[in-house]
Design goal:
Helix content is about 40%, strand content about 25%. The protein is α+β, with helices and mostly antiparallel strands. The chain has 5 domains: about 1-170, no CATH class; about 170-280, PAS domain (Beta-Lactamase); about 320-425, PAS domain (Beta-Lactamase, 2-Layer Sandwich), CATH 3.30.450; about 440-510, Helix Hairpins (Orthogonal Bundle), CATH 1.10.287; about 515-690, Histidine kinase-like ATPase, C-terminal domain (Heat Shock Protein 90, 2-Layer Sandwich), CATH 3.30.565. The strands form 5 sheets. Strands 2-1-6-5-4-3 form a 6-stranded antiparallel sheet. It has a 6-stranded mixed sheet with strand order 22-23-21-20-18-24, covered by helices on one side. The protein has a 5-stranded antiparallel sheet with strand order 8-7-11-10-9.
């Protein structure tokens, strides 16, 4: 049998092991003509290990031969003891050698085997004088099956006929060695090939018969060496015959193991390697192989065309995006760059004879350490990817801003990085735009700061006239009769409103200019809550609203004036937009070591705020659109000041609202606890103004 034929049979059998059980018999039938053309007296035989039971399921098919007569066999008997017969389901099929009455016999040859299963060839030697009926043939099948697996094969009416006696014997020499490398079994045909009888070789090391100076692996020369893997190995070796003649042999071997997984030796098969000058025609096989090669070649060509198309599209995308590609083999320290990489810098591939060295030379000296640090952080695993921006010198001397980004895509043993891939993007225009944005932002901030400083500086000039006006109005109110007090009251009311507006603007300007300082002093929370209640008692009573306040009694250290300002703005805002129901101010407290966090909720039953407006209400001068809100006066500064004051006090503020149901503001502010022992009342004090 030719080497190519053996390899085809091996590949065929491997595909059987990977097939689903229901597909195996069909595949065996389809391969029968090919097997018959290689070895007329051989039938491909396959067994698969079962997961839930010991033993194996056995499948076989004989090549079909319509012209040949049906030949039968005598009664089966196995060449193993009665004790071994009782363990038929556990018997490794590769150990079986079956004899029949007379001179008929079947030899089970398994050159390859794995823990999942195995496959091999059944060699059938026939006695032409022994002819039996169909019923005897079926009895043969029934008797053969238990020896292999304990499971009867699937037999149907369309089973192929047995082989006719005109077929020659299988030419291979199966053998087996133990862990010591000595032969445990050699096929009797070894005498025809090498001149030795089996008993002359059994017990002797296989390497005594093999050319030790041939350039093959140590395992193939000396089967006493433990296997590195369970895969099949195939090589051409030289074997010395008894008469001293060397023969070129194609051998295949693989390790086998016992049920516990321990290595027990090697099994293999030798084939005489044909003279290259001899050409044996196998028309059907050659035609099939030529057809397959042509199909594979066409498929490969189509794949190449698709690859070229994808590559062209990728190059166009990278060109449009001003990007290049680099691919770094970390083991050989070689780097591939695509054409666009060189184009961005104005160089050609010839200029990058040593890519790493050129890269270091072209990077701006001020950026090199930062780029290397980014690479080291990714290489060492500190960061999931490599990303850095640096300046790189073009061939004309100009500098480009480059975004360099990539990651390791392949690792070897012990997680050693092997390959790194990335992109190289020109971001010069983006960086220039960012510089312009920063410059414009600085100009705007300087202008705003100058405005705020001016307003903060004219504080006295703005307040003094209003104070005089308010003092005169109050004096007039005290001296005129009631029927004439309407106009002085209006003057006083509008003067107070204007003063509050000026105070808000001044506070906002101070915060923005950085001149706003918090004054931290000890205070009692109940005093702050009493101030809020008293400040709004008359106004809530006039509008027919309730004002509920609940807070614990605790001493704190902080800016209580700014806390009053925050709560006053929020409660005043709630009263302004509420016409029915009322306002609830609730405070909860949590203490940790030397500080406490106050959590305020200011809830009203007013008109509510649309969800789309909630993110904007803390902006300066922002007023909610809509007739329901526009009819209420305001400057849009109150909530902005609240937000900035809360931020200054390291707190947070947010809001929830529903149209027609009301609004709730949430404020969290930390305060320091007094150094002296403190007492917190067990119950919150509640005050209510109706």
């Amino acid at each position: 049998m030719e080497r190519e034929q053996i390899e085809i049979l091996y590949q065929l059998a491997k595909s059987f092991l990977e097939s689903e059980p229901e597909d195996i018999l069909t595949t065996l039938d389809e391969s029968a003509p090919l097997i018959a053309s290689f070895c007329p007296t051989c039938a491909l035989w396959l067994w698969k290990a079962e997961k839930e039971q010991k033993g194996a399921t056995c499948y076989w098919r004989y090549p079909r031969n319509e012209a040949g007569p049906s030949r039968g066999f005598g009664t089966l008997c196995a060449l193993f003891s009665q004790e071994e017969k009782g363990k038929e389901s556990e018997t490794d099929p590769s150990e079986l050698r079956i004899l029949f009455e007379g001179e008929n016999q079947i030899r089970v040859l398994i050159p390859l085997k794995s823990r999942r299963g195995g496959y091999g060839l059944l060699e059938i030697l026939l006695d032409e004088t022994n002819v039996v009926e169909e019923s005897q043939l079926r009895a043969f099948y029934q008797e053969l099956a238990p020896l292999f697996s304990g499971i009867l094969p699937l037999l149907g009416e369309n089973n192929p006929d047995p082989l006719d006696p005109s077929r020659s014997a299988f030419p291979g020499i199966p053998w087996e060695t133990g862990t010591d490398g000595c032969y445990r079994y050699v096929d009797p045909k070894v005498y025809e090939w090498y001149g030795y009888r089996p008993e002359e070789m059994i017990g002797k090391p296989r390497d005594e018969f093999i050319d030790q100076f041939q350039s093959v692996s140590a395992v193939d020369r000396n089967p006493s060496i433990a296997p590195i893997s369970k895969e099949t190995r195939s090589h051409v070796i030289r074997v010395k015959g008894k008469e001293g003649v060397w023969q070129q042999v194609f051998t295949s071997l693989m390790p086998f193991y016992d049920d516990s997984g321990e290595w027990r030796g090697y099994r293999g098969i030798d084939q005489i390697y044909p003279d290259p000058s001899e050409k044996v025609p196998y028309p059907s096989v050659n035609q099939d192989l030529e057809r397959r090669v042509a199909e594979r070649t066409q498929a490969f060509q189509r794949m190449i065309e698709r690859y070229k198309t994808v590559q062209m599209r990728l190059e166009m995308v990278l060109w449009a995006a001003n990007q290049g590609i680099w691919d770094w083999d970390l083991q050989s320290d070689t780097i591939y760059h695509n054409e666009n990489y060189y184009t961005l810098l104005g160089y050609s591939k010839r200029d990058f004879t040593d890519p790493n060295k050129v890269w270091r030379q072209l990077i701006h000296p001020e950026d090199l350490d930062r780029a290397l640090k980014a690479w080291e952080d990714h290489y060492s695993g500190l960061k999931p990817y490599y990303e850095v921006e640096y300046r790189m010198k073009k061939k004309n001397g100009e500098y480009l801003w480059i975004l360099d980004k990539g990651r390791i895509v392949s690792y070897g043993e012990d997680l050693i990085p092997l390959r790194m891939v990335g992109i190289h993007s020109d971001i010069t225009e983006r960086r220039a735009f960012e510089v312009e944005l920063r410059r414009a932002k600085e100009i705007a901030e300087n202008a705003s700061r100058s405005k705020s400083e001016f307003i903060a500086n004219v504080n006295h000039e703005l307040r003094t006239p209003l104070t005089v006006i308010m003092g005169i109005a109050e004096t007039i109110l005290m001296e005129i009769p009631i029927e004439k007090k309407e106009f002085p009251i209006r003057i006083l009311k509008n003067a107070k409103h204007l003063l509050n507006l000026i105070n808000d603007i001044i506070d906002l300007s101070k915060i923005e200019s950085g001149k706003f300082a918090l004054v931290k002093k000890p205070f009692q929370l109940t005093e702050t809550m009493d101030f809020i209640r008293q400040s709004f008692a008359l106004e809530t009573e006039r509008k027919g609203l309730y004002l509920k306040i609940a807070a614990p009694s605790i001493g704190l250290v902080g800016d209580h004036v700014r806390l009053k300002q925050i709560l006053t703005n929020l409660v005043a805002n709630a009263i302004k937009f509420t016409s029915r129901g009322g306002i609830t101010l609730f405070c909860a407290i949590s203490t940790e070591e030397d500080h406490a966090v106050l959590s305020f909720e200011i809830q009203d039953t007013g008109i509510g705020i649309a969800e789309s407006e909630l993110d904007k209400i803390f902006e300066r001068f922002y007023q909610i659109d809509g007739s329901n809100h526009r009819k209420y006066s305001g400057t849009g500064l109150g909530l902005s000041i609240v937000k900035q004051l809360v931020d200054l006090m390291n707190g947070s503020v947010w809001v929830r609202s529903q149209i027609g149901k009301g609004t709730t503001f949430f404020v969290r502010i930390p305060f320091r606890l007094p150094d002296r022992p403190r007492e917190t009342s067990a119950h919150a004090t509640s005050q209510e103004a109706l």
